[in-house]
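User: Here's a structure from my thesis project, written as structure tokens. My advisor, Dr. K., wants to see whether a designed sequence matches the one we expressed. Can you design one independently, without my sequence as a hint?
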């Protein structure tokens, strides 16, 4: 699943390539990924210039004149820009052919934006500009963790009102926009906090440390993913410290996993000790 740094990299790459061009062709292979909150289908985009590309929560929003195409890639969705005649991939869901302004509808596209999805779980919504309420699951209201509004005070006040486990809070897109599974693990590792810790048992200093960890981990990840310049359908994850790793880079101990509300959390039991009674103390088991 693309996370915030991936989405920003995809947005910047596609923005540089496609903004200003307009749609001259559309193809749909898997209608199941498409949803329309306007009367018509993808051909409504023909002739429209792409004005901008935005990230909104876990959606990438292609802003056309009058219409937004909001894509949530979910688990397996990927974008690719290819030559118009390039061979089709089996996982193609839909494609838009783009050409410079002035090319007539039905003219030859200069390039094709493809949306591929192995699982067809992603969804693409065609809506009137900013008609966000037409999109189920477009949870808004979370503070953008890369914006100046994400202050210590704002974070501590959000944290104070939570009764759940800290990892569940970090993943709540109505509060924070946004962290996914991979970076939730990285942030908790950086702050030295066990993923199952209840928010109410965190101290003021824990809260401050967690806020700094979010800012630092995410800023570094954005820089790293953008700096690699990998194709936009490649997820750059090799620089992560605990997610899907075996050995802790800090203490050399074994990384463990724990189920937190149905999700696998990766953590180091030595660097992120549990605080609640009744937990297995890995240090005493000799494992
Ligand atoms: Zn460790």
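Assistant: Designed independently from the structure alone:
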């Amino acid at each position: 699943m693309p996370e915030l740094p991936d989405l920003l990299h995809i947005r910047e790459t596609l923005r540089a390539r496609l903004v200003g061009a307009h749609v001259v062709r559309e193809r749909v292979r898997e209608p199941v990924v498409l949803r329309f909150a306007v009367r018509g289908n993808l051909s409504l985009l023909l002739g429209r210039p792409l004005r901008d590309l935005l990230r909104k929560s876990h959606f990438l929003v292609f802003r056309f004149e009058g219409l937004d195409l909001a894509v949530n890639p979910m688990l397996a969705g990927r974008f690719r820009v290819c030559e118009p005649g390039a061979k089709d991939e089996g996982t193609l869901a839909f494609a838009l052919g783009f050409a410079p302004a002035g090319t007539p509808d039905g003219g030859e596209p200069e390039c094709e934006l493809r949306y591929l999805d192995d699982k067809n779980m992603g969804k693409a919504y065609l809506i009137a500009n900013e008609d966000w309420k037409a999109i189920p699951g477009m949870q808004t209201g979370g503070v953008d963790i890369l914006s100046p509004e994400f202050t210590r005070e704002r974070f501590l006040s959000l944290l104070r009102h939570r009764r759940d486990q800290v990892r569940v809070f970090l993943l709540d897109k109505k509060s924070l926009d946004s962290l996914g599974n991979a970076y939730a693990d990285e942030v908790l590792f950086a702050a030295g906090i066990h993923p199952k810790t209840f928010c109410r048992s965190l101290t003021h200093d824990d809260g401050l440390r967690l806020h700094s960890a979010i800012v630092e981990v995410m800023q570094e990840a954005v820089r790293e993913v953008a700096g690699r310049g990998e194709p936009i359908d490649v997820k750059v994850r090799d620089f992560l410290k605990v997610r899907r790793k075996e050995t802790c880079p800090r203490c050399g101990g074994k990384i463990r996993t724990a189920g937190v509300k149905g999700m696998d959390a990766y953590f180091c039991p030595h660097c992120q000790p549990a605080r609640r009674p009744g937990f297995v103390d890995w240090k005493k088991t000799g494992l």
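When you compare it with your expressed construct, this may help: The chain has six helices and 13 strands.
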